[in-house]
């Protein structure tokens, strides 16, 4: 049986690279592509796919939001998140949100093929590094870095603030009010023990949470 794959990434070069890798694999076919979260949802509504390969950082709505929405109406559809973010910063959050696997864009092509087959078969795909973190790194809150204490929404807002976006821009992107974003900002600063956006930005850059 051929595995029908939807690739979701806003970078043409990434999509072409993924197609090239999968082209030589007899049991897989790239059946569709999407360049943003809404397009992913539209295509999944209209067609059936066996696996979604989803970039978590596309324009528009957050990848985490798209992931949760996908899982709410198609809970059994395997979603493999392919991200530029290192595993230790995003993988656990993504898996908690319902992803079936997490792979960084620096992974070897064979890892991608293995991951797709594994999530297609109904299993979770995680690297050895992440397996060890899950097995031995069940850290107390005190030992966890501050950004891991944020909720998914707070984390999204923090990353956008750290990227230099205004409260209004963030509100528009997340379809929330300016007041709500301001409330999130206050909560983030309190949880992170910081005073202003400059401190948040410095922290995010130091921890490679933003480009």
Give the name of the CATH architecture of the largest domain: 3-Layer(aba) Sandwich
**Separation, N- and C-terminal Cα atoms:** 39 Å
Secondary-structure element order, N to C: EHEHEHEHEHHHHHH
Q: Looking at this structure, what is the CATH superfamily of the largest domain?
A: Response regulator
From the alpha carbons, calculate the radius of gyration and give it in angstroms: 18 Å
* Number of structurally distinct domains: 2
Task: Please tell me what the overall shape is.
Answer: globular
CATH class of the largest domain: Alpha Beta
Estimate the helix proportion, in percent: 40-55%
Q: Identify the strand order in the major beta sheet.
A: 2-1-3-4-5
Provide a short characterization of the protein structure:
With 211 residues, the protein is an alpha/beta fold. It has helices at residues 12-23, 37-46, 63-73, 87-96, 109-120, 128-136, 152-162, 167-174, 178-192, 197-206, and strands spanning 3-8, 28-34, 51-54, 79-83, 101-104. The termini are far apart.
Write up what this structure looks like:
By secondary structure, the protein is of the alpha/beta class. The chain contains 10 helices and 5 strands. The chain has 2 domains: 134 residues, 3-Layer(aba) Sandwich (Rossmann fold); 65 residues, Arc Repressor Mutant, subunit A. Strand 1, helix 1 and strand 2 form a beta-alpha-beta unit.
Chain-wise SSE layout:
Layout (H helix, E strand, L loop, with lengths): L2 E6 L3 H12 L4 E7 L2 H10 L4 E4 L8 H11 L5 E5 L3 H10 L4 E4 L4 H12 L7 H9 L15 H11 L4 H8 L3 H15 L4 H10 L5
Parallel strand pairs: 1-2, 1-3, 3-4, 4-5
Helix pairs in contact: 2-3, 4-6, 7-9, 7-10, 8-9
